[in-house]
Write a structure and sequence with these properties.
Helices cover about 25% and strands about 35% of the residues. By secondary structure, it is of the alpha+beta class. It has one domain: OB fold (Dihydrolipoamide Acetyltransferase, E2P). A hairpin with a 6-residue loop joins strand 1 and strand 2. The radius of gyration is 20 Å and the shape is globular.
Length: about 180
C-alpha cells in the first residue's frame, strides 16, 4: 500500500518543481494595435454585467458603454465593449486578466483597445484583457495615461497628448506595412 502513495508523492513533488509560466503575454504598443481593431480615448458611460455560456458554460462578462474619439482615425466613437469577468461582488466571477475596477469606473476617462469578435454574444466588441484599458487621470494640470509596467503598451505614465500622437503614428505605420505586404 505504501508504494502507490510514495509514487503519488514523488509525482506531485516533480510537478511542483516544474516552472510555471504566466498566460499573459507582454506586448508592445505596435503588437497590441496589430491584433486589435480600435484604440480610443473614451468616457465610460454605463457598466453592467451579464451571464453567458460562451466561451464556456456559466461565465460572467462586464459590458461597458463608451463614447469618445478614435485615436487611430480621429473619428467620434460610441461603442459597447465587453470583457470576461465582473467587479460586482454579487456576480462572484472575476478573472486575473480583466481590467481593474479603478480603470473601468462609470464616469472615468480611459484609453481602450478592443477588437470585433464575431463569436462574442450580442456581437459586442471585446476589450483586450488587462492591457486593454488604461485609466486617464489629471496630473500636474494635464491628462496623463496611467502606465501598467514593463510588458504593457504603456509601461509608464505618459501625457495623453503624447499617447494620442504615438497611437496615430503607430496606426499609420501598421497601415503602411499592410499595404507593403499586399504588393
Amino acid at each position: 500500500m505504501r508504494s502507490p502513495k510514495f509514487v503519488v508523492a514523488i509525482l506531485a513533488a516533480a510537478a511542483l518543481a516544474v516552472p510555471v509560466t504566466a498566460a499573459i503575454k507582454a506586448m508592445s504598443l505596435s503588437e497590441l494595435m496589430g491584433i486589435t481593431t480600435e484604440t480610443a480615448q473614451v468616457r465610460i458611460l454605463e457598466k453592467t454585467s451579464f451571464s453567458s455560456d460562451w466561451p464556456i458554460e456559466n461565465v460572467t462578462w462586464t459590458k461597458l458603454k463608451v463614447q469618445g474619439e478614435s485615436l487611430r482615425t480621429g473619428q467620434p466613437v460610441t461603442a459597447e465593449l465587453a470583457f470576461l469577468g465582473s467587479h460586482d461582488p454579487a456576480d462572484h466571477y472575476g478573472t486575473s486578466e480583466m481590467p481593474t475596477l479603478q480603470d473601468t469606473r462609470v464616469g472615468a476617462e480611459a484609453v481602450v483597445f478592443w477588437f470585433k469578435n464575431p463569436d462574442m454574444p450580442g456581437q459586442l466588441n471585446q476589450v483586450f484583457d488587462l492591457g486593454g484599458v488604461y485609466r486617464v487621470e489629471q496630473g500636474f494640470g494635464e491628462p496623463v495615461v496611467v502606465g501598467k509596467g514593463e510588458g504593457f503598451a504603456f509601461p509608464e505614465n505618459a501625457k495623453l497628448a503624447d499617447v494620442r500622437e504615438l497611437v496615430r503614428k503607430t496606426h499609420l505605420e501598421l497601415l503602411a506595412a499592410q499595404a507593403g505586404a499586399g504588393k
